[in-house]
Amino acid sequence: MNSPILPVLEQLNKVVLGKPFQVKLAVVCLLAKGHLLIEDLPGMGKTTLGQAMAKVFGLDFQRIQFTSDILPADIVGANIFDREKSAFEFHPGPVFSQLVLADEINRATPKAQSALLEAMEEQQVTVEGKTYELPHPFFVIATQNPTHQIGTYPLPESQLDRFLFKINLGYPDPALEKVLLKGESGRTKMPSLESLLDLETLEGLQKSVSDLTVTEHLLQYVMDLILATRQSPDFAHGLSPRAGLAIVSAAKAWAFVDGRDYVLPEDIQQVFVSAARHRLQSVKTSSASTIELIEALVKDVPVPA
């Protein structure tokens, strides 16, 4: 079948130059109803990607700039006393949007970071004992600076596990960077982006992804990969059952974007590193990076016959 997502990818790749794999992962993350974590240096196009996705998918957009003094109420909202009504009224925060860009999330204190936890997992927030539903769909793109930079607070494991993918954009190709230097940046092309999908269509695509079938032997393949992370001496701990669910959902979405209604082993392999890298921690005795260890693990685990 022809993928209805191809025009979306074409539009996004006009703005985020030279990063088709990362752009595809971001779209896959939205279709799989996950959340996306982007770690990179400032000025790499993280915010541009979030703004472009909101425009192309026709989603309400809010950006939250995380700082060391941001409070949970600045994110989820607060009850404010209305003198005319002599009562407290809830004023929703910027998290009440369909696409939320949590910019430089690791510059905030753990208390402020935790304000996103319930929202990302339950699609709701609780303020002073009362629960408020968030819009649907609800998609968080969080950006963080490398943890060696000054003024950063590492995200705890419970927060990292809420993200379906972690990706890096990285430096652009020199030829494309030269285009940026000429003034043809992604931001200048933002006004020309068109909204290609409406809310009903997007929700229909997400349902189609969820309905994709995964054969028994491919589910066993995912299990073999998960068990390999738990048995490997290279990692401090293995992947959780939630990580397994995330990998299956992401593989379905990758297959759907490729125009198929069934999953192949290659779909699992394409998403596995991005779904596992923030959930695994390499032991200190290993000289290889976590990504290199995961890639080697994927190569070593055979696909069941």
From TrEMBL:
**A Pfam family:** AAA_3
Question: Where does the ChlI/MoxR AAA lid domain start and stop, copy by copy?
Answer: 228-284
Q: Per its UniProt record, what InterPro entries does this chain match?
A: ATPase_AAA-3, CbbQ/NirQ/NorQ/GpvN, ChlI/MoxR_AAA_lid, P-loop_NTPase
Top-rank lineage group of the source organism:
Bacteria
Taking every annotated instance into account, which residue ranges of this chain make up the domain ATPase AAA-3?
35-165
- Give the protein's recorded name: AAA family ATPase
From what organism does this protein derive?
Answer: Kangiella taiwanensis
